[in-house]
Specification:
This protein has 220 residues and is α+β, with helices and mostly antiparallel strands. A 5-stranded antiparallel sheet has the order 1-2-9-4-7, with no helix packed on it. The chain has a 5-stranded antiparallel sheet with strand order 6-5-8-3-10. A hairpin with a 7-residue loop joins strand 5 and strand 6. Helix 3 packs across helix 4. The termini are far apart. About 8% of the residues have low confidence. One of its GO terms (cellular component) is apoplast. It is found in: Secreted, Extracellular space, Apoplast. This is Germin-like protein.
């Protein structure tokens, strides 16, 4: 009886260990892998630059402290240095982004196909939220103040909105060297070539004329 219990415990431990092992990315095989943009080899990421050619500048980006120009229809400016601006990010699975908001400025609903995100408010008051997947489609949101942190789960649609009377600034960290961004409105109404009007009219349960109006700005 004791032996049977011991075997069960061993098998449970092995199963749990295997599960945890599979749940994490592989450990790096070297100190770093600075992206070699000139290499003709294409992998999931970039091949490594010869370590003898690596410099401190490969890990450096200047200017994230500079406010962006928010005089645009969204009232926001996004400064998003990825592996293309910081080649040393290659294989590290991280990147950062600064967003400046005019009063009432927004970062419209979007998703990152390759990353989760942690947002920190540096200045102002920002409403942040995300929507869960089908079938619930539950909105989870909160008004954030200076020093507050909010997490956006991997791949889910999320947004930010400056709900204060003054300018706002946030900085975020993402779990990918190149997280990508899919702005929902741009993707749906601004694809090239355009998605068939009948498809969108049925999907949004609106008249064709409304779809035409929404697609019009992207066709200029």
């Amino acid at each position: 009886m004791a032996i049977s219990i011991l075997l069960i415990l061993i098998l449970t431990t092995i199963t749990s260990t295997n599960y945890l092992t599979l749940a994490h990315e592989s450990s790096p095989l070297q100190d770093f892998c600075v992206a070699d943009f000139k290499s003709p080899v294409r992998v999931n990421g970039f091949t490594c630059l010869d370590p003898k050619q690596v410099k401190a500048d490969h890990f450096h980006f200047r200017g994230l402290h500079i406010p962006g120009n928010t005089s645009n229809p969204m009232g926001s400016f996004i400064n998003r240095p990825t592996v293309f601006e910081i080649p040393g990010l290659n294989t590290l699975g991280i990147s950062t982004v600064r967003v400046d908001y005019a009063p009432r400025g927004v970062v419209p609903p979007h998703r990152h196909p390759r990353a989760a995100e942690v947002l920190t408010v540096l200045e102002g008051t920002v409403l942040a939220g995300f929507v869960t997947s089908d079938p619930e489609n539950k909105l989870i949101s909160k008004v954030l103040h200076k020093g507050d942190v909010f997490a956006f789960p991997f791949g889910l649609i999320h947004f930010q909105h400056n709900v204060g009377e003054n300018d706002a600034v946030t900085i975020a960290f993402l779990s990918s060297q190149n997280p990508g961004v899919i702005a929902i409105a741009n993707a749906v109404f601004g694809s090239d070539p355009s998605i068939d009007v009948d498809v969108l009219a049925k999907a949004f349960q609106v008249d064709h004329a409304i779809v035409d109006k929404l697609q019009a700005p992207y066709k200029l």
